Amino acid sequence: MNPLEKEQNARFAALDPLLPPIAAPPSAASEPLVVTAGGHRAGGLLTHVVHAPGAWPALWGPLEIWDLTAVPGDSGAAGLTALLGAWRDRMRGTRPEPDSGCTLAWPSRDAEASAVLLAHGFAPMTCLAVRPPEPPADAGPSRVTVRRAGDGDVEALTDLRVAEWRYTSLVGTAVPRPGARALLRAEVVRALRFSGLVWLAEDDGVPVGLASCALASPAPGDGIHGRLRPGRWGYVDTLSVAPGARGGGVGRALMAVAHRELLRPELRGTFLFYHPANPLSPVFWHRQGYRPLWTMWIRRPAWS
């Protein structure tokens, strides 16, 4: 571990005790970025990724992404400012497409960094939130029944996932793409077959919501490596409530069942991703005991 990484780990530990040690991005094609600010060195790794229009990641963001893993050490806001300036200079002349973006993940509790990112045209797009392994909140009265989903529910689950994805395209990172339903249906089938932690809420036999969960452990190359502390975690992948059933306790009923299932002794807690601009999910998840750990920032389109 180099001195910059040691400095940054110390700063992260002071910011938030749940933050893990920093980790390098999985791509071997990352380019180093090194600057000096106020006599302090700051560094980072810049990764360029292009997704095919029909690929799963294309449903959730731009086709072309430049992502910076920033390591400003103890240089603070000045170091991050210098890194963003060097990043902008590095991008000059690249001519990115409109369907592009610059992204950076940073601890949610670092208000100084938030101010720097906002000043450089970035917006918070996604939060990774965590919850300790505590008993679920009381769901309160609800007219719905919740049961484990099975193969016969694929189409109903797909309808609910499509409705959630369409709503997210208005208030989050989802992007309308051809073939979206087929991709979402395939993800429903995968969740049923491999995690089995999928629940369906019904109101008098009519599907009105779903909760799709899984178990996950951070490992090099996945999206939570360097975001969560090592160990086994419960993952709330998707909670979807039919538009006409929102506000009626469906989400609470689903998560009461899901959290009871995920309340296992070996788990460090549960985590999920939500969109800060969504007028529904931040309030709901905070009441469920989740709090932001990381914020993923984006500038769209990318610098040119």
Automatic annotation (TrEMBL):
Sequence ranges assigned to domain N-acetyltransferase in this UniProt record: 144-304
Annotated GO MF terms: acyltransferase activity, transferring groups other than amino-acyl groups
Protein keywords: Acyltransferase, Transferase
Coiled coil: none
Origin superkingdom: Bacteria
Pfam short name (any one): Acetyltransf_1
PANTHER family found in the cross-reference section: ACETYLTRANSFERASE, AMINOALKYLPHOSPHONATE N-ACETYLTRANSFERASE-RELATED-RELATED
Name under which the protein is recorded: N-acetyltransferase domain-containing protein
Taxonomic lineage: Bacteria, Bacillati, Actinomycetota, Actinomycetes, Pseudonocardiales
